[in-house]
Amino acid sequence: MGEFDLIATYFKRPVRQAVLGVGDDCALLQPTPGTQLAISSDMLVEGRHFLSTVSPERLGHKALAVNLSDLAACGATPRAFTLALALPRVDAAWLAGFSKGLLALADAHGCELIGGDTTQGPLNICITVLGDVPVMNGKSQALLRSGAQVGDDIYVSGNLGDARLALEVFRGHQQVPASVFEQARLRMEQPTPRVALGQALRGIASAAIDVSDGFLGDLLHVLQASQVGARIDTDIATNLIAVRAGSTWASAGFDPKMDDARALRWVLAGGDDYELVFTAAAADRDQVAQAAAQSATVVTRVGTIEAAPGIRLMDGHGKSVSGHFPSFDHFQS
Ligand code: ADP
Ligand code: MG
Questions:
Q1: DSSP string across 58-80
Q2: Model's pTM, two decimal places?
Q3: Domains, the chain
Q4: Distance CA 33, CA 254 (A)
Q5: Is the pLDDT at 258 greater than 70, yes or no?
Q6: Whose CA is nearest to atom 2 of ligand 1?
Q7: Tens of pLDDT, residues 128-157
Q8: Ligand 1 centre and the CA of 35: distance in Å?
Q9: Which helix (H) or strand (E) holds 9?
């Protein structure tokens, strides 16, 4: 199968909302009146961003999910994406699985594949996603990293640390029952982008980011952009790992024999979570709760924005917690 048959078979579908989709030199999109375009790219490299053991279907899902997660962090509504793909060889079963996972998530979010590029080479997947953000009274409704204010609450969506748990099992550093591993692995290989939550938080959250490299590291980006600091309650944070959060894992009787220090490390610096971290004024707690309910997403308040730069970790009794929680850095790990 040649390049053009491959594109036609796995990636070309009837155009939906685009003016022109796959097949010409450019795709054409009609801008939505009263909006700005939100644009983001993410590349996935084998061994770096995924293990060779992942199924192609889950990989297709994840490649788009990490991009949708960036739109979610900005409060954008997904519209379309392009796919640049380097493949070592044409493997029909792999392509069928990959495009199935990719396009299922795309359809779930009304995000249309409008073009891309395909070449032979080491497996590499690069997606650029496009979304809309409304402009109201001349003001962009996009959520930015730079809006956190002293006194704001700090929230996290969903759970943290589950993907890291799966990675540690893969590495042979942690043992868990098979059913728990399957659930953790699902979180690592098929993350849920918090798109509905991001949109519901427009006009409510003062700042937002998605957690890809690790909670503390990504929170620090918000703090630096906003020129503020933070205090985090580590007792609450430790309970964000699903095995501690009264999840199905815990009710299945799974005791991870996980000391608090390890749980905390995975929650604070595990990475690959694709949850949203956001801030909002303490006066807006009801509105945050409504946004969470409206998007059927659990959110947990984990701390407070303070004036002094940096992050202070405190346990539930206000005692300072120390530890080293390095975030993932592609050029240092
Ligand atoms: P060109 O050589 O003009 O850049 P290509 O031959 O690379 O175009 O691609 C032909 C068409 O197929 C274009 O519309 C391009 O956007 C689309 N396309 C190429 N690869 C992909 C892909 N992996 N997924 C979706 N569309 C693709
Ligand atoms: Mg061309």
A1: HHHHHHHHHHHHHHHHHTPEEEE
A2: 0.94
A3: 3-140 (3.30.1330.10), 153-314 (3.90.650.10)
A4: 51
A5: no
A6: 25
A7: 999 999 999 999 999 999 999 999 999 999
A8: 27
A9: helix 3-10
pLDDT single digits (tens) 35-61: 999 999 999 998 888 988 899 999 999
**Alpha carbon of residue 304 to chain centroid:** 22
85 Cα to the center of ligand 1, angstroms: 10
Written in H, E and C, the secondary structure of 184-228 is HHHHHHCCCCCHHHHHHCCCCCCEEEECCCCHHHHHHHHHHHHCC
Taking the centre of ligand 1 as the mean of its atom positions, its distance from the CA of residue 57, in whole angstroms, is 21
Asked whether 81 lines ligand 1 (CB < 6 A), one says: no
DSSP 82: E
Those residues whose C-beta lies under 8 Å from the C-beta of residue 158, and which sit 6 or more positions away, are: 192, 194, 273, 275, 297, 298
Please tell me the residue having the least CA distance from ligand 1 atom 20. Answer: 117
Tell which phi-psi region holds residue 115, choosing left (phi > 0), alpha (psi between -120 and 50) or beta.
left
Range scoring the smallest mean pLDDT among 119-128, 212-221, 284-293, 311-320 = 311-320
State both tokens at 160.
């943290």
- With a 6 Å cutoff on the Cβ, whether 207 touches ligand 1 is no
Residues 62-84 have pLDDT tens digits of: 999 999 999 999 999 999 999 99
d(CA 213, CA 215): 7
Region 232-239: mean pLDDT is: 90
Q: What distance in Å separates the CA atoms of residue 129 and residue 123, rounded to the nearest whole number?
A: 20
User: Ligand 1 in contact with 11 (CB < 6 A)?
Assistant: yes
Cα angle, residue 276 at apex, residues 270 and 106 outer, rounded to 5°: 100
Separation of CA 204 from chain center? 20
Question: Hey, whose CA ends up nearest to atom 5 of ligand 1?
Answer: 117
- CA–centroid distance, 8 to ligand 1, in Å, is 10
C-alpha to C-alpha distances, 178 to 120, 169, 184, 259, nearest whole angstrom: 37, 10, 10, 20
- Nearest CA to 80 among 123, 28, 135? 28
